[in-house]
Amino acid sequence: MLNKKNIISSILSLALGFFLVWLILKFTEVDLEQVVTSFYSLNPLYAGLAITALIVHTFLTAYKWGLVTQKLTPDSQQASQQSLKFYLFYTTLGSLTMQFMPQYVGMVMVQNLALRIHKISSFSKGFLSVIYDQFFNFLIPLLLFPASILYALGYISLSLAIWIWIATIIAVHFMINKWHRSLISFLIAALTWVKQLKSGKTKDAQPAMATDKNSILGKNFTLYLYWISVVRYLVWIIRGVLIAIAGGFKIKLWAVTFVTPIVQLAMLFSFTPANLGLMEFSWIGLLRLFDVSDAIAVQFSLMQRFLYIVAVVIVLAVFAVVSSVERFALFTSKQNQ
Questions:
Q1: How far is CA 256 from CA 25, 274, 319, 337, in A?
Q2: How far is Cα 164 from Cα 177, in angstroms, rounded to an integer?
Q3: pLDDT at 50
């Protein structure tokens, strides 16, 4: 839950993020008016496709979280009654919250609170479902990181980097297929240990896990979750490419593709809301390796942030309209009775 200390910490981290952005604009000599102008000159078609990709990414994130939650709470009537709309709403709300506190702190907090408030799961299982879901979010960029950094530094060719990406993704599929139960059991035990360490408890609070093939330890479910994560991350990369095209930025599309996993993993060490300032620094430094000017890198990184917020606002606005229509229809039906 939010307390005074957390609120003060969030305000300070937000202020630090804006200060870092100010430093970037100052030392790269990028005029803020120039950045705003780039927003107005967006190609509407590709900008719309980029926003669509962001919404699809949010949809897949919510869908995956819902799958994990229902598998961890098979006996919960509340969990079985919740539709994808429930998970999509709180995922989007978490995305909005991340703009005001460290990225994955905001998402984890909103998701865990949603499960507890709606009595879908206990604190222990709610924690595991959220963290287990977030693990898969980071797994794919982690797998793609080695080839990405080697290509960005010029140690391997583009064709070899692509081959390593494909080979890694396929190899992990077969690893999961053979050792899924041991891998997932170890992951759950590790997550439970982290929870106990954080809470100061020493008792074994690991929730009992079903062992049948349809449980979270099941091979088919684990592989399904893995490939959803792969597709989800592919959509995220496509989003970056579409933003580069929409803004007319002179950036090689392969540069955007291979820098994305590196920047994504940098978010693990984020201490500003939505990695504000730090994400921009990361893009500037990494795109320099591809001879992209600081001005272009700054505009591109800020454009990503802007369109991300636009996509979040659009989804929440749709929820608000649908909710209003449903309430009005319910009110009308009661009046007619």
A1: 21, 19, 32, 58
A2: 20
A3: 94
